[in-house]
Amino acid sequence: MVKKKETDAGTEQKILAAAKKVFVKKGMDGARMQDIADEAGINKALLHYYFRNKEKLFEQIFAESAGRFIPKVKAILIADTGFYEKIESFCGEYIDMVMQNPYLPMFVMNELQKQPAAMIKKIFKGSLPDLSKFIGQMQEEIKAGRIKPIHPAHLIMNMMSMCIFPFIGRPMLSAVMGISDTQFMTAMEERKKAVPKFIFDAIRK
Amino acid sequence: MVKKKETDAGTEQKILAAAKKVFVKKGMDGARMQDIADEAGINKALLHYYFRNKEKLFEQIFAESAGRFIPKVKAILIADTGFYEKIESFCGEYIDMVMQNPYLPMFVMNELQKQPAAMIKKIFKGSLPDLSKFIGQMQEEIKAGRIKPIHPAHLIMNMMSMCIFPFIGRPMLSAVMGISDTQFMTAMEERKKAVPKFIFDAIRK
DNA sequence: GTCTATAACTCGATAGAC
DNA sequence: GTCTATCGAGTTATAGAC
Predict the structure, then answer these.
(1) What is the pLDDT of residue A19?
(2) What are A53-69's pLDDT values in tens digits?
(3) Cβ-Cβ contacts under 8 Å for A130 (sequence gap 6 or more)
(4) Residue B112 and residue A175: Cα distance in Å, rounded?
(5) Greatest CA separation found in chain B?
(6) CB distance A194–B154 less than 8 Å?
(7) Statement to judge: residues B123 and B167 lie in one domain
(8) DSSP state string for chain B
(9) pLDDT per residue as tens digits for the range B121-135
């Protein structure tokens, strides 16, 4: 009995891990149930035993992936820390997380663009991240004359762009700038500090 | 005879336009020959009459799309203009072009991530954009003490990120910041000036 | 729970009439 | 050059034995 339960959980986890790997790399359309079965070391029939069909399996993976990728914004921006600390921790933690899952941004953004409304709903389940606190802090800084007036939307876009895009544009950037995988990762490590510094330099009076 | 030629050209152009629309939106894997035929107002057989197979048709579209999207870097960065002008024209022209083809960045980056080596080859055909002039100008500015010391790779990444990413992350950004399509486009229009300003503020001493 | 075998279906591609 | 009809490969999904 114990053995049975262990096997169940083990197989299901193996499937989820395999499915994540394959879906994230190839996308919903490009992924094959056979690939996932192979990766998990089982056969196709067993996939359908655990998850009725491809779509159900995909949704599980997507929800988990996007749920890890997107709402992180929430946690950081809503935290009880100062304006500068928020920017620093956002850049540091985001880049860190993506370095461990380099294909995640492309995967999530791509599927999101194909089915915007449906996917957004699944991710946020009605509770969008509340930016008002962060924006409020920004406006205070502006009022106090410590930073230049800048529209919050642009600052947020700039920050997210500089953290996420390098991973999406990696093949192009690597080719254009002629850098190796190791050099790329080194550069990303640098960016955990370089991006917030760039932002502060841009906005500080 | 005139009529025949007109019909040929007309159909081929209709197919290419339809294929671009479908491929760019759904990607190589997600696109269906039937979708393209429908979009072009013809049937599948005729697609294969004009383009032997799906791959040939895709390559034509991809080459044209990426060829428009990527080498623009080249032209601007190699131009005979000053350091600041280059940054301004890059941001302005790039954002402008992408506003007219909002799905292009996602499409190109996505296919590029699936087949990096092969696709890079197709796009650049051996002549990568030469960044040395731009980098040289940047180093002069640093030496002259007009801008802060910053690694060229990071500056280039920042610039491209802030120009391109908003279009890739559009569904997420729109949702998170609660903005409409119109507001999004207005914001992008603003960015043609706001991004270079942000960059100058960040690097200028 | 897990497997083999196969049904059911999707989709790219071709044959052949007009 | 354009169409209808259909084939055949590749995939998802199910049946049924163990």
Answers:
(1) 98
(2) 999 999 999 999 988 88
(3) A74, A77, A78
(4) 11
(5) 68
(6) yes
(7) yes
(8) -HHHHHHHHHHHHHHHHHHHHHHHHHHHHH--HHHHHHHHTS-HHHHHHHSSSHHHHHHHHHHHHHHHHSTHHHHHHHSSS-HHHHHHHHHHHHHHHHHHSTTHHHHHHHHHHHSHHHHHHHHHTT-----HHHHHHHHHHHHTTSB----HHHHHHHHHHHHHHHHHSHHHHHHHHT--HHHHHHHHHHHHHHHHHHHHHHHB-
(9) 888 777 788 889 999
Tell me if A187 is assigned to some domain: yes
B152-166 pLDDT per residue, tens: 999 999 999 999 999
Cα–Cα distance, A128 to A29 (Å, whole number): 28
Q: pLDDT, tens digit, for every residue of B64-105?
A: 998 887 777 778 878 889 999 999 999 999 999 999 999 999
Binning pLDDT at 50, 70 and 90, where does residue A46 land? very high
Chain A residues with CB under 8 Å of B178 CB are 128
- Residue A152 in domain: yes
Asked if residue A58 belongs to a domain, the reply is no
Q: Residue B59 falls within a domain, yes or no? A: no
Q: Check whether residue B174 and residue B136 sit in a common domain.
A: yes
A42 CB-to-strand C distance under 7 Å: yes
Looking at the 3D structure of chain A, how many domains does it have? 2
Among candidates B70, B129, B168 on the partner chain, residue whose Cβ is nearest the Cβ of A109:
B168
Answer yes or no: do B19 and B72 share one domain.
no
Give yes or no: residues B74 and B104 share one domain: yes
Q: Are residues A38 and A121 in the same domain?
A: no
CB-nearest to B165 from A73, A165, A178 is A165
- For chain B positions 133-172, those within 8 Å of chain A (CB to CB) are 148, 150-151, 153-154, 156-158, 160-162, 164-166, 168-172
Give percent above pLDDT 70 in chain B.
96
Query: Which residue segment(s) compose the domain that B94 sits in?
Result: 64-203
Round to a whole number and report the distance in Å from the CA of B46 to the C1' of D9.
Answer: 21
* CA of residue B45 to C1' of nucleotide C14, angstroms: 9
Q: How far apart are CA B189 and CA B194, in angstroms?
A: 9
Name, of A113-117, A120-124, A133-137, the range with top average pLDDT.
Answer: A133-137
**One domain, residues A72 and A27:** no
